[in-house]
Model the fold of this input.
Amino acid sequence: MNIIVAGAGEVGVHLAKMLSKENHNIVVVDQKEEVLENLNSNYDLMTVIGSPTSVSTLKDAGCSSSTDLFIAVTPEESRNLTACILAAKLGVKKTVARVENPEYLHSDQKAFFQQLGIDSLICPEILAAKEIADSLVRPWVRQWHEFNNGTLILIGVKIREGANIVGKELMSLFTHNESCRIAAIKRGKDTIIPGGRDIIQTEDMVYFVTTKDYIDTVRKMAGKPYTEVHKVMIMGGSRIAMLTAEKIAEKFDVKILEVSKERSEMVKERLRSKAMVILGDGRDIDLLHDEGIEQVEAYIALTGNSETNILSCLAAKRFQVQRTVAEVENNDYIPLAEGLDIGIVINKKLIAAGHIYQMMLDADVSNMKCLTFADAEVAEFVVREGAKITKSKVMDLRLPENVSIGGLTRGNKGIIVYGNTQILPGDRVVLFCPSEYLNKVEKFFK
Amino acid sequence: MSKSLFNIRVIFKFLGYLLILEAVLMVACSGIDYFFKDHTQLVFLKAAAITFGAGLILALIGLHAKRDIGKHESFVMVTMVWVLFSMFGALPFYLSGYFNSFTDAFFESMSGFTTTGSSVLVDVEVLSRGILFWRSLIQWLGGMGIILLSLAVMPLLKMGNFQLLTAEVPGPVYDKIHPRVTVAARRLWYLYVGLTITLALLLRFGGMSFFDSVCHSLTTMATGGFSTKNASIAHWDSAYIESVTIVFMFLAGTSFVFLFRVLSGKFNKIRHNEEFKAYFYIVVVSALVLSTALFFFADLPLAKAIRTGLFQVVAIITTTGYTTADFSVWIPGIRYLLIITMLFGAMSGSTSGNIKIGRIILYAKISYNELKRDVHPNAVLPVLFNGKTMPATLIYGLFGFLFFYILLMILSVGIFFAMGLNMEDSLGVFLTSFGNIGPGLGNHFSNFFDLPDIAKWYSGFLMLVGRLEIYTVFLLFSRSFWRN
Done:
């Protein structure tokens, strides 16, 4: 695909890097020379220096009817909209603009934007709020990803001491097991695609593949107690906080802590009965105490300051809060925050980039799609008639070591793959492998 | 799993694959030799077998290599590819028996791949067709670059690492014509192949034999300069052949990215490209001066003076190094004019060697800016190139290049002098080796057979350093490169 990314901010750069690893022709447009220079010399893509809202720059970047996708992700929403309108005028097939204002996303606006030439709008804050809301439904899940329209689910769980899968060979757990499979294990910095003899240790991040019906089995296996979230405390009355509160107010009791008086009044005015707004600093332990932090199941730190968010989540963990969520906008802190055991780290930019990437995957009609998860390649293949993989049962296929088939979707049903499974043409297979094995794996599907 | 600094296996894999490719080309040469019923088919098959064996071993060692290629790997790979290609490329020469020693064969091979075109042979007309074709072919491969070729044809490099390319493509700035390196490389190769075929046909029209026209078009487009005749282009003494060659040498000296743009209809690029304009004017002015000098001081008739002057200027500036006259016998003043042209080189991103006009323009602009700054200390004086401000890092890089160049020149002239060459010869061998030109000065005008062995190896090293523009090779000698 020919793709133009306008804006080399964090979203744009992240997206361009991800896309350039696949077979796409990427052109990045921005005015910031240094950022582009770095991209240009380290990645397989082209850069054009200039304003994304200038017609001549867009032409230089190759905006024409042969461009499949135009992604405008500069920091300013008005420029993104303008750039998309111009690009559409130049013949680009599909445009995506990043916006801040959730109003634009209302369904009744859709036709209007379409008419302007803007096919999709994404609002990172809404996406972030959605991700937070989803994470509260199952507080034991660290990572959640759906494949093939949700028929297969990838669940990442941190394994704690006492879980009954610790210390056992996977063979004994998963032979003839139709409910789930372990696709990958992240141990410290290493990613392991496990075989039958591998053993799970405490503190491992384990990635299960399962179907909708067996989510609870996975939970039990991972040794997580069944808990429901009732009370949620949010620190910081930011826009994401309000969007999140609006989303979850029906199900949970929401308390928002906000330092500024004006802001807190504004938040209250907008949320009304949906949330209780407390004027005060979330780092103040006494205040947290008074507001009943001990009874809270989820603590969400969404101030504009990444350090504050991380620190206050750590404080909340001391009060045995089960689910902690911190917004970390400073990319350098993300691995740090994950290392500190903060449950979910929210980064608007990465979420936006990931969302656009997923949109592209969904639009991709080729028989192989892949994305990177925990440093391993997760590939979705559509099995063709006569492919090598259909010739025998999975255990007799002699797949390379380090390659693990997680599951497949047949018709509309997710199936967990184990040794005895026979793969049929038309199945959509999800498999895991280190990136250098991808070529070898592809041969099985030809 | 500790992450080591190097992914050595991927280097082996890469080198192995490329050597196998080289072996295939040797087999092709054997076929050509067979076609002309010459006697060196076996030589090529033997060389191919050895090369293939070595390639296979390397490829097997690197069979399960991870595919990530970083900066370190890139630089090692690029330098090693050139060294190994020249080593194994010397095999057919060595095995053929035309060369006295492996040193000579290696010199010829390195001179070929780096498109220098200096030779240790006194008589090339006795060589078999296969060997003659191999000489032309290695120049042609080296002209556009082995890495660029491998990016274009080998799926192994699907990762398309851009570092590899910048380590090989000449000139201070590389311009992308397509977002994907592999596609860009393929386009440039199409253009290169297209021009080569066109030139071969035009030369065939001019009365060259089919074999000669192909060989000459290969070495012309590569700005290499190996000929199939002892007298080089002068052998035909044809105004038509000379003018066709002049035009194509000139084209080979322009940036291929620029040529590609112009050919795809962007004619206004010609007016806006400073380097091209400078290249054009330098060629015209130098040719005028040389022709005038030849007319007045060397007593050549006017037409002959213009022909020779223009041909020789273009041949030297583009670092092709064909000759239509023995300029070692010209009077010193005229020879000096040629030394000046030996310092330039043609455009960045062309197949030519040497410093490149782009760098010269930048040096001139920076130096002139400094003059102005003395009078107006607070003046804003950006260095503009093709209308764009050049970043400071690029300018530092340029001066690093200049420093290394001068250092190399002083050391090398001293080294050759110590080996018993006279001053003019020493300078000549340095300029021609580093600039990948071909002919030297003085006693080493057209061939280098009587250089001491050690001087041949050193000269070969200079050719490599010149072809890869100093940094790629020198980096491997720096401590910070190897330290984790």
